[in-house]
Write a structure and sequence with these properties.
Length: about 700
Amino acid sequence: MLLVPMQLRQSLRWAACLGIALYAAFTPASAEEGKWTPQQLLQFPPQWLQQQGLELPVSRLWDPARGTGLLAATISTGGCSAGFVTATGLFLTNHHCLFGIVQEHSRPGRDLITDGFIARSREEELPGKTMRVTVPHKFTDVTKEVDASVPAGSADLARTKAIESKQKTLVAACERTAGMRCSVAVFDGGLQYVLVESIELTDIRLVYAPPRAIGEFGGEPDNFHWPRHTGDFALGRAYKDGKPYQPEFFFPISQRGVKPGDFVMVLGYPGRTMRSMTAGEMANERDLRFQLREQVYGEWIRAIEDATKGDAAGAITMAATLKSLNNSHTNAQGQLAGLARGNIIAKQRQHDDAVAAWAAHEAAFAKSLDAKKELDRLAADRRQIATRDFLFQIITAGPLALRQATTLVRLAAERAKPDGERDPAYMARELPALHNNLERQQSSFFRPADEAMFAIWLAHAATLAPGERITAIDSVKPSVAALYAGTKVTIATERLKMFEETTAQLRARHDPMLELAFALEPELRDWQAATQTYEGAVARLRPEWRRAVIAYAGKPVAPDANSTLRVSFAHVKGYIPRDAVQYTPQTTLAGMIEKHTGTEPFAVPQFILDAAQKVKPEEIPLDFLSDADTTGGNSGSPVINARGELVGLNFDRVWENVANDFGYNPAVARNVNVDIRFFLWLLRDVQKADAILKELGL
């Protein structure tokens, strides 16, 4: 069980050395800055938390003796967050987080995407083939064990392999307990390693989803902007052994809602932030991740839209893919705009220099300065092959045929190895989910769109500089039309046969898409080895640099997001996005109706327009802002009030705050939440979902 995180121990020790008051050391610079681990929450003085607005004792949120508490009602859906709201397994999350199940059960004539869905009984609930959730169970600091697994003087690739091997051993021992899903979370590149034990639930069913016109109202034009009028919520249920799962903790729903100035907490599994990076590394993220994503994803989006125009079945098939790409594309644009607007990288460079200047006079941090210099050198080296690396990275997000073929080829090779020696993504524990994904992907395959996406990927590969060329593409010179005409990878029944086949059996098929994957495989493995070498260097260098950064700060520093359970403190608050413009923090149904044009994405469903005639729309809360520190992965995060009651669900950030991943700016750091009172009004007064409301205790 984690008691005092390494970051905090370092901070407190150096705070004492520097003569900083303990209270200052315990208190973050801003009440809202930081994605804090549950264990870090215990280190804040109770009186400080009370001053922020918390009414519950901290031990109710997280009991140090048991290593659990109300925060454990926050669950992960493997990309989104969610929260249990009943003792019978009901959980609330965003509409877009359960969109895959909605799409899975939609077809022309039964378009749940457009019409929404309500299960009037448990028998009507819709299962999700690839959906799963994990419930937090236990956290154990394993830093000493992982560090000790690396032999002295190891090269960087060997370091990564040693760490990976130790992680596998820890996970295998942990998962001997039936129904447990375990992982080793890495904090700030290797400053700390934590064994995370979670209860895995794989029987997940859709209970309620609003029509798309509510769940996505405003679409891409409103994405990452304020004011918002989106009912981005959905209700699922987790089952275990065929019966509704009974969580130990769940969030009661507040009917009082929130008002400006109220204290709230956002709980969830934020995915990835870059605040522990040096300025040079941040520049790589800007130039070689977000700029390329903005370009390639934009081309993919336009290709999908063109391929599905006028084809209702094709539009349904590509809906989830298009939704995901649009969100990532808009996010990339926001990151680029925010980095430029906030001059974030220049400010990070100034901060790096200040830490380095301080460390130069502290003998204990001589290694930190060397680590910083080497991190910058590695960042410069990685720029030379960044475009090719990006094309390899996005195979998992791009055309399904290429993704499936490369997966099957790698699977066959890995399956021939002992389980403990396999790539972690292809170990026996992953195979059921991998099989389900390969089966489920058929509902997202629309050949004209997939061909167009593949052609775009190949076109970018053709423009690579001489030092970045992909040999397999240059030598094979694949024809997209011939690949798709001759392959059986895109046929679900054949693909599932391939799932069980050996390398020799796959080669014997002489399938053109598989042959391309075989040609790519050596280069993909070389790329993976180079990536692992870099990761080994980071595991060696980042902790040394972060020790200096944290000591210089002289107070607790929240680690970068890494998809583990976190807590962010916040208050309901508006902001000033630019000169002479001030946004208030709450919107209402009246604003949704005002935006109504009758044309997507601003077409309010008629039943909402009819229901609005019977109420005062300006009195029906819809969305609200708070200044929580959030990022991707916080979609669906429960937003709870000072008493631990659910008042909303996080679903977005404002445009000015997208680059928050690189640094927190209290002036514009605002996350967007759907107000639980709109959810209740819709179910109670509009859609008459009495059985659901009764189960919610309302």
